[in-house]
Specification:
By secondary structure, the protein is an alpha/beta fold. It has 8 helices and 12 strands. It has 2 domains: about 35-130, Roll (Ubiquitin-like (UB roll)); about 140-265, Cytidine Deaminase, domain 2, CATH 3.40.140. About 25% of the residues lie in helices and about 30% in strands. A 6-stranded mixed beta sheet has the order 8-7-9-10-11-12. A 4-stranded mixed beta sheet has the order 4-3-6-5, with helices on one face. The radius of gyration is 19 Å and the shape is globular.
């Protein structure tokens, strides 16, 4: 499936200054946002607002980072057929399959928006309790972390087209970008990256860093912890809970990474 979608619409382009506003009609490109209903072995997990594309990675990554797999292997992903054909559901329903080895999930009580990844979860504390401090992490040099935003910015076609998506990327200690995904939701972009690494047998990611183009919230750090990343670097600020979580995990957390500068919080 194509990695992300945008749509062209007609807008009124307004220029002000130096007299009366000048108004012209012209096309603009906007990001597509649609709901994705995620199931695990046929049981509803959540509905999340996302940018269509890499849906199997997103579904599997979310199930992994939220601890829903409980060690079970993913045997397959498919667009839902139990509730109608993929065409009937407009490719907006995905089920992750483990052959019944994963525990039956408790569905989230609310739709996950593009700006929130943990809304509806029963307990943040319970998510933290299932994870243990990370060990045997590959150190990633500060200059590699600081260079992540500029390096990643060169490979964001959806952002170039719309200016409305976030990016997440997994990169090596040498600075090589292994996986980059874009989505209207920061947490979705991270789950897509984790899902790809899961499919490729690259988890735990204890020799990789994770770049995120927005702020570093608790949910982002928690997902990085679950996937075993050695470091998280964000272009914007972390929250206090994100810092506490990174310190508990034992991973490096850097924020405000811009123009070769950054703050290191953990």
């Amino acid at each position: 499936m194509a990695r992300g979608r945008s749509a062209k619409i007609l807008v009124q382009h307004v220029e002000t200054g130096g007299g009366a506003p000048r108004v012209t009609r012209q096309p603009d490109e906007v990001i597509v946002e649609e709901p994705l209903e995620i199931h695990l072995d046929g049981h509803l997990v959540t509905t999340t607002m996302r940018t269509p594309g890499d849906d199997f990675e997103l579904a599997a990554g979310l199930c992994f980072t939220d601890g829903l797999l409980a060690g079970a292997g993913v045997t397959g992903c498919r667009y839902c057929g139990d509730c109608g054909s993929a065409m009937d559901t407009e490719f907006n329903v995905v089920t992750v399959e483990t052959g019944g080895q994963a525990p039956t999930p408790t569905p989230r009580v609310a739709t996950t928006t593009s700006s929130c990844g943990l809304c509806g979860s029963a307990s943040i504390d319970s998510l933290r309790q299932r994870l243990r401090p990370l060990h045997d992490l590959t150190p990633i040099a500060f200059d590699v972390l600081a260079a992540a935003p500029a390096r990643t910015r060169k490979a964001q076609p959806l952002f170039d087209a719309t200016g409305a998506v976030h990016a997440a990327a997994a990169f090596t200690a040498d600075g090589e970008t292994l996986v980059l995904r874009e989505d209207i939701g920061r947490h979705n972009a991270v789950d897509k990256v984790v899902g790809r690494l899961l499919f490729d047998g690259r988890l735990p990611a204890n020799d990789l860093g994770l770049y995120i183009s927005g702020r570093a919230s608790f949910e982002i750090v928690q997902k990085a912890w679950a996937a075993g990343f050695a470091a998280v670097v964000a272009v914007s600020a972390p929250s206090n809970l994100a810092v506490e979580t990174a310190r508990a995990a034992g991973l490096t957390l850097a924020g405000f990474a811009r123009d070769g500068r950054m703050n290191v919080y953990s």
